[in-house]
Amino acid sequence: MKLPYDEMLDAAGKSRPHYQIFHNWLKEQSDTLMGLKRAEADLIFRRVGITFAVYGDDLGSERTIPFDQVPRIFTAKEWEQLEAGLRQRVKALNRFIYDVYHEEEIIKAGIVPAEQIYNNAQYRPEMRNVSVPRDIYAQIAGIDIVRAGEGEFYVLEDNLRVPSGVSYMVEDRKMMMRLFPDLFQKYRIAPVEHYPDLLLECLKSVKPDDVKKPNVVVLTPGMYNSAYFEHSYLAQQMGVELVEGKDLFVKNEQVFMRTTQGPERVDVIYRRVDDDFLDPLAFRSDSTLGVAGLLSAHRAGNVTLANAIGTGIADDKSIYPYVPEMIEFYLGEKPILNNVPTFQCRKPDDLAYTLANLDKLVVKLTHGAGGYGMLVGPASTKAEIEEFRVHLLANPDKYIAQPTLALSTCPTFVESGVAPRHIDLRPFVLSGKTIKMVPGGLTRVALKEGSLVVNSSQGGGTKDTWVLEE
């Protein structure tokens, strides 16, 4: 059986050139020292409060995400290709969101079936013909990238609603610099610490037209949300207020924040609350997380929401198979980054193939996230496969299937020492006046041997991601 692509070692077991210095350094480190460094990192993360919540977890609601001190390293050339592909993809996705809420050219051209839009739970008819600043709906995008085969990059999925994880990208870098400062003298590594500055610049650039000095806030569901650390972290790093729905109110289709000095107008909201809970007057009436009247203020152009309401239509897994065609349709370009081949279970032939090959495929809920509601065929028992088959047959239109990619591996410090573990990458793309991103992203690692599920909620960890400067 052919081994997956190893980020550090080539097929002959020799270090790839850009890893050579690190590989030599790693061989000099004892397991005892590496274990002590890992414990130090865990202690610091816990002290600082860098934790996430796991819903329904018996081990406690708050955990640190395991941090691995072996970085994932990209050459400048590799990153150049990735960055070009990410910019192209996010540009096309924003064009697509604008189109489905306005002219619907892609539907009229017969590329995306109308029912795939109108019957989608993420489609918001309330956003029809609503203008947003610069026609940008997804100001913040987290695109999940994997490497497979002989080292080719693939887009696994697009996260355009409330993508999380960027705080861990920044904190992982700080931790590596604290634990191993000598390594940063051996390499020229592109910085990522300025991400909050880029984010604030991006948010300000999509302010309502009539505002000169925009007031930006971060809207959180509250401290019990799994990503609350990130919400408070980004607000603090940007120097803006962290607010909950109860801190805001709408008057005359404008949004105001309650302060000790009286009401203060809010112009841009970086919202980390899902569409359904944003406005009890428009969506879920039982929501206590949102702001009554927020949709009307958004539609009137008096407040910018990042990301906009209805953005989820473009990151739904049932829309994912059409992204390469979107790129060609809107940009007239060939996709730089490939999709993973995808079977749409709503199609009879694709469903038949999926049912016949459940033991070989990864099957996902189109609205699923966090590694839930999915089947990894090769890693499942016969009983689990048969149980999943029942759910698939009952609602085939809710699932897609993909071949089980042999995700690339990266050396990782585990209980037995340094061993290969599967990884992916989530770079963060900011779309404002221009499209910007920091060189790198959040590398997630499946800590269980053989596991392909990297999500923190499923026991995954994170690594620092280095992009080497030429």
From TrEMBL:
Alphabetical list of Pfam families matching this protein: CP_ATPgrasp_2
Database matches in SUPFAM superfamilies: Glutathione synthetase ATP-binding domain-like
InterPro entries: ATP-dep_Glu-Cys_Ligase-2 (IPR051680), CP_ATPgrasp_2 (IPR025841), UCP005522 (IPR016450)
Top-level taxonomic group: Bacteria
Domain Circularly permuted ATP-grasp type: 71-446
Protein known as: Circularly permuted ATP-grasp type 2 domain-containing protein
Originating species: Polynucleobacter asymbioticus (strain DSM 18221 / CIP 109841 / QLW-P1DMWA-1)
